[in-house]
Write a sequence for this structure.
């Protein structure tokens, strides 16, 4: 039986050597344990379904983006829909802003490049347990550049919208924001929609990056 303090991780990648390497790394990470693997998104969903029925869902799914049958971005969305308690972290070679935005908009809690240090992968996994969004430094830099310029200031936000932006920046869902602020989930969703409109943004990920850039939340705190 896994200790409640231990973070259980399921790995999804179409290259066996990558899965083996990640599994070996995780076995030596303090407080993290490897609990299973899959070679693509469809297999991952099947195995997670079985684990759910057994009450053994992992805390985190560490997943590649480009895979056969069902890719990472689509799989993230389906995991979020079917197993909302499971967090996903993308571990990939692709750093294009569009791919990053698609994955995070679908519900990923982190995005790390495969050439990142093992400490970054570990930090991304641990960040999910604090309901934080962890973005690879290089990727975050590219995303932030898109948000520079007029139309992205937070001065136009109401005090309540600013509070909501802070919570979005910490990676909280609409449901979690509603509970934190003692409002309905519908009201939380409305606030998020207004924030995106006022800041001329299209995704929660962009809003989270604005919150970090403006110093409202700390980026990847230790």
């Amino acid at each position: 039986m896994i200790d409640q303090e231990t973070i259980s991780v399921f790995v999804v990648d179409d290259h066996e050597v990558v899965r083996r390497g990640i599994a070996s790394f995780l076995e030596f990470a303090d407080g993290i344990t490897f609990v299973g693997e899959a070679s693509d998104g469809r297999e991952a969903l099947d195995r997670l379904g079985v684990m759910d029925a057994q009450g053994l869902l992992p805390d985190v799914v560490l997943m590649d983006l480009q895979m056969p049958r069902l890719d990472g971005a689509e799989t993230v969305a389906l995991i979020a829909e079917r197993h909302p308690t499971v967090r996903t972290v993308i571990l990939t070679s692709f750093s294009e802003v569009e791919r990053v935005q698609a994955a995070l908009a679908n519900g990923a809690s982190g995005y790390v490049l495969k050439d990142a240090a093992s400490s970054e992968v570990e930090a991304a996994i641990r960040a999910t347990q604090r309901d934080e969004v962890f973005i690879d430094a290089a990727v975050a830099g590219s995303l932030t550049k898109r948000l520079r310029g007029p139309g992205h200031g937070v001065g136009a936000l109401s005090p309540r919208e600013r509070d909501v932006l802070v919570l979005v920046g910490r990676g909280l869902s609409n449901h979690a924001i509603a509970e934190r602020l003692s409002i309905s989930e519908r009201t939380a969703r409305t606030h998020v929609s207004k924030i995106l409109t006022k800041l001329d943004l299209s995704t929660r990920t962009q809003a989270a990056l604005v919150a970090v850039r403006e110093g409202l939340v700390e980026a990847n705190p230790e």
Residues 79 and 181 are 26 Å apart (CA to CA). The chain is about 50% helix and 15% strand. Strands lie at 7-12, 32-38, 60-63, 87-92, 110-113, 134-135. The chain has a mean pLDDT of 86.
